[in-house]
Amino acid sequence: MAETDGPDVRIAEKTDTLVAKHPNCFANEVAVPVAQESNAQAMDAVARVGREPGVSVPTGPAVPVAKESDVLKERTRRFAIRIIRMYRALPHSEEGRIIGKQLLRSGTSIGANYRAACRARSRAEFVAKLGIVLEEADETAFWLDLLRDAEVFPDAKLHGMICEADELISIFVASMSTAKRFTSAI
Asked: What does the DSSP assignment read for 35-97?
């Protein structure tokens, strides 16, 4: 998505949808379908939503934008699928089998445990469950590194998985830090 002049407004490059922060909408974001010829006017109006009295969304009904948790649920699910496919491609040696099963368990549990964290009944429970997600992501990174370092699986095929595992770890560390900060403020 390309950023516009206003910090809270962006327009999707491949669609005719405007996305803006809006204080009265779910997740504080609203997506507004607009006609090609009115993009500039719509972007200006959406940028003023919530800042100026009497300004409303310019065209069409508000459509909620996917929540970050839904995006991360899908990302961890896709990561689990990649782990399963990698497990199937591992060599049928003893070390491939043992490390592969460990990788399969930890790599697929990231998504499952993240979904459980999203259903937490309190912030404290969310932080605790997110800690489990982080442990599983870190363990997965360990097994991927071990496969690479022991030359059980080609480095070229592991590189993308290792990068994704590291990115997931970074996301979960930041999420835990944020959640803990809000928990301690309560």
From this structure: -GGGHHHHHHHHHHTTTSTT---SSS--BPPPPHHHHHHHHHHHHHHHHHHHHHHS-SSHHHH
